[in-house]
């Protein structure tokens, strides 16, 4: 059976977008497989704006999320395995929607 996590992730993501909000991920940047710009990591964490207008080459696969985004004008590739992000949040106001624990298969 296919993993449930990408389907739940997409449901939350689409709901936030359809509600005219901005989706964010709070990511644990200390895990070896996570690829984020380390110069923006604070206390082992990074918050990423993942709105459609902020990212490109967006892929939600069975085991990871990847996309490209600009950081201080430089295009960077981002790779986040599903188990390595902590919270899915939205702005207006910021609200925690889902933690990685609730997305375990």
Automatic annotation (TrEMBL):
The lineage of its organism: Bacteria, Pseudomonadati, Pseudomonadota, Gammaproteobacteria, Pasteurellales. Gene3D superfamilies: SspB-like (2.30.30.220). One of its GO terms (biological process) is positive regulation of protein catabolic process. One of its GO terms (cellular component) is cytosol. This is Stringent starvation protein B homolog. Pfam families: SspB. The gene is sspB. It comes from the Bacteria. It comes from Mannheimia haemolytica (Pasteurella haemolytica).
